[in-house]
Specification:
single chain; mainly alpha; 2 domains; 72% helix
Amino acid sequence: MPRRCSICTHPEQAKIDSALLAGEPFRHIAKRYGTSTGALLRHKADHLPEALVQAHEVRQVAEADRLLEELRSLQADAKRIAQKAERADSYSAAVSAIREQSRIIELLLKVAGELSEASVSIHVDQAWIDLRAVILDVLDPYPEARLALAEALDAR
């Protein structure tokens, strides 16, 4: 008759299963719960329900989706604030909001894998952001030209 799994009968089985699903090192789990790494390895391979593994993966994907949605929401907020600040002729606030938009876009691109650490975009470059602010300030006495330039820059 085969031996019973010591992890399946362990009083802390649920916590052990959670630690295994979280990817904690076997030796840490074994030390914490007084088991052997071999028992943990066999339990994970043979007894840890596949449904738990799949549920854990689904939760990870859902969390990633939620974080991406939060980033997109922050991006929309920053854009709205930038537009409102420009309409109120609060250029320093507009520049700050634009800078924040750029950071959020950069993060979204990194998350999507479309931007490496080494690549630099003119829209994210601080020198460009500062130059844009100066140009818009110089055009302050010419509201139509300033608005046309701001719209053209935002369209790019």
